[in-house]
Amino acid sequence: MSPPNTHTTKTKTESERKRSPDSRDRASDERAMVADGTLPPLIAAQLNHLLSHSSHSLKVDQIWSGCKNAQFSDRFTLLVPFCLDYVKWDVVYNAQCPWVAPDVIFAAEDEGFYPFFVAGEGQANGQREKSSLEDWNCKDPARLMLLVHELRDLYKSYQMKRVGELDDERLKFEISTVLSREGIEVCMISGSERLEDVKFSVPLLDMNLNKLVHGCPWRHQQMIYLQVVFPISRKYTSSSPPRIKLVSSSELKALLSVEDVKLPIWLDGMCMAEYLPAVEDILKAQIVEAIAAIGARRRFIEALASQFGRPLEADSVFCRKATVLAASGVFTFLVHISLSTQFPKQQPVLVLQSSQHFNSQGTPVMSPPLMDYPWSPRWETSQMVERIYEFLAEECLSFKKYCNDSQFQQ
To answer: Which intervals carry biased composition (Basic and acidic residues) (predicted)?
Structure first.
């Protein structure tokens, strides 16, 4: 094998209204969906502004019309992030009167949520609070975003009030000791076979993670949260620790996989105020290691040129992927190299792709992921690359036969 010669506000009647966040940011796809002309221009402008400028990672679940054979759609479902989950709200406009403010339909389990209607003390009638729905200006593209942000803030207060009214001494104590931390959210959740639980979402680390990686493409501020779930009881039981786990946005996984962070043990009688500092100390150390690992991966990718020539493609920010071109005689193929956040403890995953063999769908023939080759994290970077090159010099013969057999079977 030789390197190639190249340098190149209402209540929803449906029962299920929540879903978990998916694994990727769909904002660009959603804006394209809005821009395809299915919504009247006035409504589309407000939704596009919401998706482009909101500080929250909002998503559009679906867009539809309230009338059959209508020229435009006039309603859509928003997935609003809250307490490490999504609440599902339907925003209902009228395509025939797009200048009119929309209705917002909430989940059935939130039937007690009346955001702009509060009962005053000693008053028989309710009192309506002024909201962003007052003096609605359809020509202002930011109006919908202001409304959604206001409703989310009120929903946060509503959930906090619900939890605060529970007859549970442990929860009352936990709330009183951690509410001083900025950004905490709390909500009640229902289980299929157990009573309701209370979930806390606690933001960790008072640092700007976005500035730690030079040139990172993150659109939203990256955060790491501790999810703490307490079962509801009527007396404090120190022997029952809560269910805990770390949660982060999917984008942060390019730098650090919080699922791999080992959390400290929750000791008997411990509360969140005691537990959180220990978690943050562990995370700070892990982040320092993660930043250093980027440098190690970068040096590995740069060293590929000594054996394979310049990479055709490479991840220049997190240094997680690279593709090089290789050849054995006239057989030319690509080598896709994937580096985990645990590199060099975990060896790179190799996938070979033929440039001359295609399956019946016209897709290039590719090998299964390859990791069965000599590796030691203690080797110098140049030796790591050299051993991969030696492995591929033999493996390319098996891969060429695999490609020929694939075409013969067609």
So the answer is: 11-31
